[in-house]
Amino acid sequence: MSKAQSQDILVLEEKQPKRKKKGDKGDSGPRKDLPRGWLVKTLCKTFWQNLLLSVAFKLVHDGLVFVSPQLLKLLIAFVSDEESFAWQGYLYTILLFLTALIQSLCLQQYFSLCFQLGIKVRASLIAAIYKKALTMSSATRKESTVGETVNLMSADAQRFMDMANFIHQLWSSPLQIILSIVFLWGELGPSVLAGIAVMVLLIPINAFLVAKSKTIQVRNMKNKDERMKIMSEILNGIKILKLFAWEPSFEKRVNEIRARELKDLVNFSYLQSISIFVFMCAPFLVSLASFAVYVLVDENNILDAQKAFTAISLFNVLRFPMAMLPLVLSSLVQVSSHIGQGVLGDLMIPLPKPAHGAQVCDGLGPWAPRTLVTLDIAPGSLVAVVGAVGSGKSSLVSAMLGEMENIKGHINIQGSLAYVPQQAWIQNATLKDNILFGSELDEARYQQVIKACALLPDLELLPAGDQTEIGEKGINLSGGQKQRVSLARAVYSNADIYVLDDPLSAVDAHVGKYLFKHVLGPKGLLQKKTRILVTHSISFLPQVDNIVVLVAGAVSEHGSYSTLLANRGAFAQFLNLYGSQEEDASDKNTTGTGNTMGLLQLEGLCILSKSSTNSWKKAQEESHKKLKGEQLIEKEAVETGKVKFSMYLRYLHAVGLCYSFWVAMGYVGQYAAFVGTNLWLSAWTDDAERYLNQTYPVEQRDLRIGVFGALGLLQALFLLFATLLSARGAMRASRVMHQQLLSNILRVPMSFFDTTPTGRIVNRFAKDIFTIDETIPMSFRSWLSCFMAIISTLLMISLATPFFALIIIPLSIFYYFVLRFYVSTSRQLRRLDSVTRSPIYSHFGETVSGLSVIRAYGHQQRFLKQNESTMDINQKSVHSWIVSNRWLAIRLEFVGSLVVVFSALLAVISKGTLEGGIVGLSVSSALNVTQTLNWLVRMSSELETNIVAVERVHEYTKVKNEAPWVTEKRPPRGWPSKGEIQFVDYKVRYRPELELVLQGISCNIAGTEKVGVVGRTGAGKSSLTNCLFRVLEAAGGSIIIDDVDIATIGLHDLRQNLTIIPQDPVLFTGTLRMNLDPFDQYTDEEVWKALELAHLKTYVQDLPEGLLHLVKACPLVCLARAVLRKAKILILDEATAAVDLETDNLIQTTIRSKFADCTVLTIAHRLHTIMDSNRVMVLQAGRIVEYDSPEELLKKQGTFSAMAKDAGIVNTETTTL
């Protein structure tokens, strides 16, 4: 099948019809044939019942909206007419109340349906995107980063949800507009056309504004994606940034993007304020135009109360649909620009799986030179695949798993697969769950697997045995432990075919030997299965059935060990090159430094309580209590109770108090003008009574129109002033907050990142910053606006009927209690929503990173189920929140209806004393108040829920920082010049509640000395490097480098002058140049020279732009970084574990030649790398047990010589490469 064609295998297995519709997305054949509207069509097909019902409710509501103005007209006529009967007045009042009530019930039903639709749409979209991700082909996966996909899931699915709420406005708005125009015609006749003309003129202005803001929005999405991409990289590689003191460079990069983003944002806000201005002007200009024309057209047309106020309430009705239409259109535009992405993309092509064994026939590998690979692997055999770096071993594995497209030929795999990837993929679950991986528990087999995979000793070290929760990305396991857990998972799954991609690289030699013997080898647990083992290690080759040698993507030869040796081909040369050192010690190249548990310990991340086995006994007794250290990831804090008032102040401070004050004043001015306009109108209409039978004086008429116009204009100008100011202020706040958050996150100590999942931090940068940027300013503005509107309305009613002031008091008390009750519930529900939302995304991120494993085991269904269940938990809280909203709305609209009733009732009672104009004013204002009351609460609660974002960002700006980067005390220039290191009774622990890891170390390392550090797992080898870089601060004692106590100088002064080649090499996206020298401190010549010394020059010259993408060459990049920095002290943290012999050799020679005049500390993992050091430091349980030259230590019958014996080293000569 061609790359573009795709088929969604999972859809076939899906049972539920609802999701099935969503799943069909991928089915439509090649990408270009997809019709634009496929998604919308699918959604309509699925949810038609919901849509129909909500249409019915909305229709009833829209009809009733027009009843009130007619009733108002009757009421005014009643008040103006002396002869009318009292019962008529009461009847109109009751009718007003009833229409208001039915109207609100229909509206709430309609909203409830819409929101349910929204929830369902979001759920099905997220499920579809997730399912899509599970079936994406690797080619498509390369096109988008995990961050972008998660963004699609969070932001864009959310957009769809919001869209669903407003979709009906598309037909309802035009309907309301047409109806109002019809009724207005009845009132004012043809002069309505003037008003309509104004509206029509406003449409193109609006369209222009929408188009402009759309382009800005699209630009900003790009910026946002880019910023999130860098952020998640920074958080994933934070260790490297700290060790190399590169934070400022990355901070600068993020801030540059942020600056662009804010510039767009402020332009966007300006456009928004202009469109708000246009909108504010609209109703008023329309009424001005209509009234003016009405009065001017004909002498006899006199504006009386009935006409004016009926018209005004109709114009008020008009206002909402006119405002909604462009909003709906723009949000539609936003959604449609996102529909196309992400849910499309190519899918994996499933492999046919017929009985056992595997064969690859002429499978064209997609790796670079297109070469033919033909293999036939017999059932039950053990096949080793060997070859140099980049010869296509991993690609062959990927092809077998169906992760690569094969261009020609086919791959037949018969039986089930288990796969152990090169970099172990560990889920955030207990250790036991990681091994069972969704299968049933069979205790006997489980124990057998754990024993065979050498995990028993580890379980004793872990605080809660196999119930220990493993952090995100497996952070409380060392590399070797992860690899073995990954292997145990495969062994437990009991498949027919095992594909093992170099599983032994991360473990120590004797552990490797043990694993081979008990698991992989001819006598291991898997002896009856078909095993395909990619390996770097020569020592196991004599015991395998068949060896496949790959050279540049082609099989150069295959056969058994003896035949290949006899052939004298590439393989035999390879063996002669490296095997010569292996004759006296059959597996020197992987000799190790420890007991059966020798694993490499991940620096700073081993959170095990390393005390000894008796603490394990204690742990058993207290196992029902949660042990400290067992639960690594603390639950995300859910703030309860009211948002502190200080948060609002903090936000206003960030905006600037001066700004805040003037914005408020602007709104006050606007509403003062608003009240003025209405009172003036009421006076104008009373002229109709005064000049009942005389001609209306012209100057009086012109005065009325002129002042009316001026007041209206003033109102709009005040508003423009306020919105423009608030746009500036909001941008300022966004800038300040993001700046604080970013600079603080880059300055927190490493332990914070170990206990906080990246997803949670990313969430702060994505969701919360977005809220501060876009939602909070809007909420603040709407809140102010609503608040002022209500005050002014109540004021006007009280002016008309002073008794109304008495009624305000009980109403506002009722209102207040409803508000209090609701806001606290809503706030908590919203918080629950955001807390239950995180797991959806982190589960998704986890899935994407472990895709090949999930697919190889065929566990897609289980992960789909899990995704659905995490989603359901989130849906629960969202649904409750929506229902609570409806509960509130019904009650509030009831208050609104009461306001209408009382203002009408008072008018009826005090009939004789009132002018028609003033009654019209009070009742038409009251009719308007219902919606505003509703909005006020909605806005208060929205403001409060959104201000939580400020709270959450603030929480991370308060996290305790590590020591300052630069202090008063600067080290002398050119420090360290000698490179002497002294440890003086040095103690350290990982976190305050854990025990000491280094128990008081004292030693001296002379300048230019080469020291190897060895010790069994948990002896504190890696902790030593962390201490030198002050990733861990001392618990006692000190480290002195060249007479400077490192605790007294700034972290950057320290870290910039040391160099490390770290355990887990990380590359950042960007040019290779940026990866080596983010500050541009060095010239191009120096960079090329460093590349040459790191043996990367030729490789990089062949790349098109000299960029770098291959992770395999990564240790070499780290080496290039070290060479470029050329510090006096180099720390080599186990950089050679996952590298084949040739690369290892390269690194060793470079270090010997280039760093001859430096102090080199090697944290060893294979003993032969340190046999030529000047001295060797042997650590045990955090203390130095032996410290001398290797020769001396071998003579002494101590710990070191015992380790050397394990590794088969007899004297120092045998090891030189």
Automatic annotation (TrEMBL):
One MF term in the entry's GO annotations: ATP hydrolysis activity
Membrane topology category: Multi-pass membrane protein
UniProt catalytic activity: 17beta-estradiol 17-O-(beta-D-glucuronate)(in) + ATP + H2O = 17beta-estradiol 17-O-(beta-D-glucuronate)(out) + ADP + phosphate + H(+); leukotriene C4(in) + ATP + H2O = leukotriene C4(out) + ADP + phosphate + H(+); ATP + H2O + xenobioticSide 1 = ADP + phosphate + xenobioticSide 2
Region Disordered, annotated ranges: 1-33
Ranges for domain ABC transmembrane type-1: 52-334, 661-945
Primary localization class, coarse: membrane
ATP-binding listed as a keyword: yes
An example Gene Ontology biological process: lipid transport
SMART domains: AAA
Feature: compositional bias, Basic and acidic residues: 24-33
Transmembrane segments: 51-69, 89-107, 166-186, 192-211, 268-296, 308-329, 651-674, 705-727, 780-797, 803-823, 888-910
Annotated compartments: Cell membrane
Residue ranges of coiled coil: none
Similarity field: Belongs to the ABC transporter superfamily. ABCC family. Conjugate transporter (TC 3.A.1.208) subfamily.
Name this polypeptide is given: ATP binding cassette subfamily C member 2
